[in-house]
Each structure stands twice: as structure tokens, then as C-alpha cells.
Amino acid sequence: MKLNKVPYVCNGCIELSKCTLEKSFYKAITAENDAKILLSESRSGISLNEDEIRRIDNIVTPLTRQGQSIHHICCSNKDSIMISERAIYNYVNDYVLSTKNIDLPRKVRYKPRKKVKTRFKVDKTCLVGRSYKDFLTFMENTENSAVVQMDTVEGRKGGKVLLTLGFVNSSFMLAYLRDANTSKSVTDTFHMLWEVLGKEYFMKLFPVILTDNGSEFSNPAAIEFDNENYRRTYLFYCNPYSSFEKGAIENNHEHIRRILPKGTSFDYLTQGDIQRMMNHVNSYRRKKLNDKSPYETFAFLHGEEILKKLGAEFISPKNIVLTPELFRC
Questions:
Q1: Whole-prediction pTM value?
Q2: Which CATH superfamily is domain 126-328 in?
Q3: For the chain, what is the HEC assignment?
Q4: Residue 42: which pLDDT band, with cuts at 50, 70 and 90?
């Protein structure tokens, strides 16, 4: 039990000599060497696959050939590129991209620097005031506020992905196909929902959103506020590696995986296919809903009109298909 509290190791324990339990020691030299190895390995090589590199190349190369600098391109497309400016320059130097140093307006004038002192760091300011602890406090002080859980379902690595939105009270789930797993594709989806549903319906459906720490959710302000800086929802993040904190949507993903198993490419699918799949998933009866379907429960709570705006349709129980055969019909 002593290992479950500070200092979490047996160093300096007065009972060490007579203790017969398995022991845990902290060795500074070993820890430092392990940290250096981990740091070195994490910064070596290219962390992107071929499809991701091709996607970035399709953004960067046409713009550099128009005379734009890497800095300008990164500033103007940061929600689509999703990697640092320094990484783009490294890919150019290593001939990973079609862009060459000669294509850059000022790069050929500079001599290589002997040492680069600055390092790109992930901006964590989006988590301030939006932690899981803040979420629990917010829910305690808010009456009758429904929670929507948000997540990403990946297909083939580097290919199209799904943005899923699960309504905890009804188990009803929306899914939207995105060409790449970027924050811009997420915010574009919410702008679309804001336009389709309108202010009243959107704020009724999405008062609070809970998601994980994925980089695609790193622009919370664009989700929480519309283009006129009007607050439309509140966004909070789960603790790292704590998917159980949004367990409702994780469990709901099992139905998607029955139709689209892990490793299946989404590239051949359309949003119409995804909507068809979700109609079958949402019409599937659940024991925890007293043998009602998420569609029926959602309709009871919010009405059929919202379901029509969302493009949802009810599938007869005998016609529901939750296997890959759904897309072979």
C-alpha cells in the first residue's frame, strides 16, 4: 500500500531491511539514461505515413509554387497541416515533399545554422478550464444539462475517418465522414450542424461536449463559439488515457465496428453510406433503454423534427443489418 502514495518507491523506507514484499527502487542514473533514450527515439525519423505525407504535400507544394513561404502556408492552414513549421522545412530538406529548397523564396539565401535551439511544443492552453475535473464541477452546478460525447473512429491509417457524436441520455449517435483527421474538419462539421439545426435546436442538443485529448480536438474555441463569437456550447476533455470517462460512446462504437471492422478503409465510403449505417445502428433496440431503440428514445426526448434535420430514418427491426453485408446489399 505504501507504493500507492508519495514517494511511490522503497528508497529510504525504515522497514526495508525486514520487508519480504516485492520492492521498487528509484535509481537516478538509470532513470536519466532511459529518459535520454526515449527522448532521442521520439525525435528521430518521420512520424507520418505515406498517405499523410501525400496529403500535406498536396497542400504545401501548390502554394510554394505560387511564391508563398512555408511560414505563410503554416499560418494560413494550421488546422489542415497539423504539424509544425520546422517539420515542414525538415521534410523539404530531406526530399520528402515535392517542394525543393529552390522553390522557397528566401531559403536559398541562408546558410545552415549550426544548432537549432528552439523546439516545437504542443499548445496545451486549450485544456485550461476544460479538464475533466472542470467538467465534473460544471455538471454539479448545472441542472438538467445533457452531455454529448465526441470521438474519432479511424479506418485505414492516413485515410478517411469518422467524427462520432454520442448523446448519453438516449444512446443516439451521429457520425460524419472526414477526409483527414484534422481539427479543421471537426470545426467545419460543427459549423455545418449550427447552420442545419439553427441556434435553438443546436444549443438544445449540444449544451455540453466531452471528448479526449486528440489533436483533432485542439481548437475548442471554434467549436464553442460561432463566427460572431456567440457561445453555443461548452467543451471539456477527459484525462489522458482515460477513455472510460466517456464510456457511453466507446461502447456505441462496437456497433460501428461490427459493420466496419478495425483496419477497414473508409476511403470508398460516402456520407450517404455513413448515414445509412447509423440509421441501422440507431434503430437497434437496447436493453438499457427498456428495449427501445436510440432513435425512438431520441424522438421522445427531442421530437421527430430534429431527426429529419439530421437526416435520420427509422429502420424496421427485421431489416436491421449490423454486419459488413450492409454495404454489399
A1: 0.70
A2: Ribonuclease H-like superfamily/Ribonuclease H (3.30.420.10)
A3: CHHHCCCCCCCCCCCHHHCCCCCCCCCHHHHHHHHHHHHHHHCCCCCCCHHHHHHHHHHHHHHHCCCCCHHHHHHHCHHHHCCCHHHHHHHHHCCCCCCCHHHCCCHHHCCCCCCCCCCCCCCCHHHCCCCHHHHHHHHHCCCCCCEEEEEEEECCCCCCEEEEEEECCCCEEEEEEECCCCHHHHHHHHHHHHHHHHHHHHHHHCCEEEECCCHHHCCHHHHHECCCCCECCEEEECCCCCHHHHHHHHHHHHHHHHHCCCCCCCCCCCHHHHHHHHHHHHCCCEHHHCCECHHHHHHHHHCHHHHHHCCCCCCCHHHCCCCHHHHHC
A4: low
